[in-house]
Amino acid sequence: MNGPTPEDGRATPDDDAAFDAWLRAATSAPAASDALKARILNAHARTALRPAARDGLFGGLRAIGARLAATRAAPAGALAALGVFGFAAGLSVNAPAAADPALAYAEDAIDAAFNDGEAEWWAVN
Amino acid sequence: MPVEDETDESLVARAGRGDRLAASALVVRHTDKIMAACYRMLGERAAAEDACQETFLRLWKNAARWRPKGAKFETWLYRVAMNVCLDRLRRRGREAPEEAAPEQIDDAPSAEADLIREETRRRVDAAVAALPERQRLAVTLCHFQELSNIEAAEILNASVEAVESLLARARRTLKARLAETMDRGASDRGSMERSA
Question: Which of B60, B122, B184 to mutate to test the interface with A (most CBs of A within 10 A)?
Answer without folding.
Answer: B60
